[in-house]
Amino acid sequence: MKVMYVKLSDCSGCMISFLEALMSNSNIELIYCPNILDRRDIDEAEDADIGFVSGSVCAEFDEHMESLKKMREKCEKIVTVGSCACVGGITRFCRGNQPPQPYHRTFLPIADVVKVDYSIPGCPASAEILKKFLNAYIAGNNKYLIPFKNLARKKRASGQDLQDEIVAKGLCVGCGMCALSCPVEAIEMIRGKPEVRMDKCIRCGTCYFRCPRNFLKLRKENAEVI
Amino acid sequence: MEDEYLGKYIDVFSVKPLKEGFGATTAYIAYALDKNEIDGAIVVKADENWEPKAIVARNSDDLRASIGTKWVITPMVDAIIDALKVERLEKVAIIGTPCQCRVIRDIKEYPMQLGDVINRIKLVIGLFCMGSFTQDGFKTMVERKFGITLPEIKNAEIRSDKFIIRLINGKIIEESLENVKKDVKFACLFCDDFTARSADISFGNAGSESGWRSVIVRDEYAYSLLQSASRAGYLKMKKLNPEGVNEIIRLSKEKMERAKRNESLI
């Protein structure tokens, strides 16, 4: 299977996970990845079966925007890796910018610019889930891929969404998995319910996707995502 | 075998604990700990105010604190991190309600966090559950309905259609189950899993006579452990009669219907 990997505006954490997953799978041929392969021009790259993108895209940086659009043309499926690419993550705190200004301040999740087929959230996306995703994709295990497919339609998720859509509605069972999944320890369980400290939240959305109440929904084909 | 109401299972048994002071579930875990089949078990203990706390039990003495049903949901985050990341145990058992069992399965299937350490949870033990309470909800319920305070309660259990509370002074309070079900957590009204379908082995009162517990075995390893626990004299084990199985199916059906009825609320 031919694979492309493009790293946009992120911290490289997802790429390290991806490389770990790549090494464990011998069926994959990496044909384009400017960070580790010599070929840097995407025009010269051949068509790929699947393209992975990590990091959000900077709307003022033409090079990124173009490589993303070209990638969409060359790849059969696009997969976003990590929270920045899926839902914006920490780049959601950027303030936006007026185009003539020489700053890079406008960052968008990938789904805002091109059509995304699958999303793998996490900050960083763990190597284990990437391994499982690659195995399932190669084996054609569509049932396993359903949650990733549903997540691709979600463009926003944070601790506040967990609070609004699960806890405030009274749907929280108090299992504590949101607190376990939080990479920055912004969630504390107080009297059996999660308490999100928004000043610590990096808006990666892992807690929101991990919540069993939500995940049950995501496992259904064509689930309703807001 | 696969059943719509019981989930995937190998067989259904009825067990009686033979170890002094232990319940069926704790006797089963105690065997696994004594024989070093597992290094630790994540269980829940409650203090006199029924403030629950998840702990890591390393031997059967630690387990004594966790005997009996706690009617209050308990986040197991700290205990899971303790067991897997701090103490770095290799073989861990976890015991919880159906929702907690499902979450462990979810994490194993879609490991968004914790990496591969989650695979060190070797045994997931489920409990039959018709719904639980928040701690405040439980406190308010016993105070308003029965006029007692939490520290007075010795234990509480469900027997057929009665919710039975035994007090420390020996008094017994009985209340119809229907009445108690009204006070379960809101989130539980949408759950359709009574028998912990994603666990390796499920324990519960329903279907067995007094002193016995029903067990649904779903996994070969959990099954072999149950058989050796019974041979080692920790448990007495017999096949559950068809009436008992039907009772479990009846309650499972009831919970599924309740979930379906309430589906429109979310």
The largest chain-to-chain contact, stated as pair and per-chain residue counts, equals: A-B, 34 and 32 residues
Number of strands of chain B: 13
Which homologous superfamily in CATH is the superfamily of the largest domain in chain A?
Answer: NADH:ubiquinone oxidoreductase-like, 20kDa subunit
Reported for the largest beta sheet of chain B, the result is:
8 strands, mixed
Describe the 3D structure:
In chain A, the strands form 3 sheets. In chain A, strands 2-1-3-5-7 form a 5-stranded parallel β-sheet, sandwiched between helices. Chain A has a two-stranded antiparallel ribbon with strand order 4-6. Chain A has a two-stranded antiparallel ribbon with strand order 8-9. Chain A is α/β, with parallel strands linked by helices and 226 residues long. The model of chain A has no long low-confidence stretch (mean pLDDT 88). Chain A contains 9 helices and 9 strands. Chain A has 2 domains: 2-151, NADH:ubiquinone oxidoreductase-like, 20kDa subunit (Rossmann fold, 3-Layer(aba) Sandwich); 159-218, Alpha-Beta Plaits (2-Layer Sandwich). Chain A is globular. Chain A has helices at residues 13-23, 62-74, 83-87, 127-139, 142-151, 159-167, 177-181, 206-210, 212-218, and strands spanning 2-7, 29-32, 48-54, 57-58, 75-81, 107-108, 118-120, 187-190, 193-196. With 266 residues, chain B is an alpha+beta fold. Chain B folds into 2 domains: 10-131 and 192-259, 3-Layer(aba) Sandwich (Aspartate Aminotransferase, domain 2); 133-183, Nuclear Transport Factor 2, Chain: A (Roll), CATH 3.10.450. Helices cover 33% and strands 26% of the residues of chain B. Chain B is built from 8 helices and 13 strands. Chain B has helices spanning 24-34, 60-63, 77-86, 98-109, 135-146, 177-181, 220-231, 242-262, and strands at residues 2-3, 7-8, 11-17, 40-46, 52-57, 92-96, 121-127, 153-159, 162-167, 172-176, 201-204, 213-217, 235-239. In chain B, strand 11 (201-204) and strand 12 (213-217) form a beta hairpin. The longest helix of chain B is centred in the last third of the chain and has 21 residues, at 242-262. The radius of gyration of chain B is 18 Å and the shape is globular.
